[in-house]
Amino acid sequence: MIEIVNYLPKHARAFKELNEAWINQYFEMEESDRNMLDDPQGYIIEKGGAILIATLNDKTVGTCALVKMKEKTYELAKMAVSPKAQGQKIGWKIGLATIEKARDLGADTIYLETNSVLKPAINLYYKLGFKDTEGYCSPYARCNVQMELKL
């Protein structure tokens, strides 16, 4: 059974490994990636953000973070699903839960950055209600697509 739970320190290793896997498959790790993955507690949670974890039979199979950008705007970041668990709608479920978490945090906007080669991810974001946007300053060299969701 798939469950979406709040991040706990015991999830740090899986959060890092799942995200390093997809980043290294398509791109190269960047400083912003390392900051977030090496210290999710300090870089995300202690700054007002949140991380959700998807588990399947008590094994971590997915992650998604909300990084606080400004008062009511959060960045959806580090969404990853284990290749072994893909095809089970985990991305959809953790995406919906992340949007709900953003509402709980008082967000009015969720922003994300991605790359056009990640077509399945982009399709998921459209299904979740995100729309194309531009004008945000990106810390990532790999990002060429910006999207946002108004809540």
Structural write-up:
The chain is 35% helix and 32% strand. The protein starts with a strand and ends with a strand. The mean pLDDT is 96. The chain has 5 helices and 7 strands; from the N terminus they run E-H-H-H-E-E-E-H-E-H-E-E. It has a single domain (2-111), classed as Aminopeptidase (3-Layer(aba) Sandwich). The chain has 151 residues and is an alpha+beta fold. A 7-stranded mixed sheet has the order 1-2-3-4-5-7-6.
How would you sum up the major sheet? 7 strands, mixed
Q: How would you sum up the global shape?
A: globular
Helical segment tally? 5
Secondary-structure element order, N to C: EHHHEEEHEHEE
Report helical residue fraction. Answer: 25-40%
Tell me the domain tally.
1
Using only C-alpha atoms, the radius of gyration works out to: 14 Å
The average pLDDT is: 96
The CATH architecture category equals 3-Layer(aba) Sandwich
User: What order do the strands of the largest sheet run in, or round the barrel if closed?
Assistant: 1-2-3-4-5-7-6
- Weakly predicted, low-confidence segments: none
Structural class, please?
alpha+beta
CATH superfamily: Gcn5-related N-acetyltransferase (GNAT)
Q: Give the amount of beta strand, in percent.
A: 25-35%
What is the CATH topology?
Answer: Aminopeptidase
Keywords: Transferase
Pfam family, one: Acetyltransf_1
GO molecular function, one term: N-acetyltransferase activity
Protein name: Acetyltransferase (GNAT) family protein
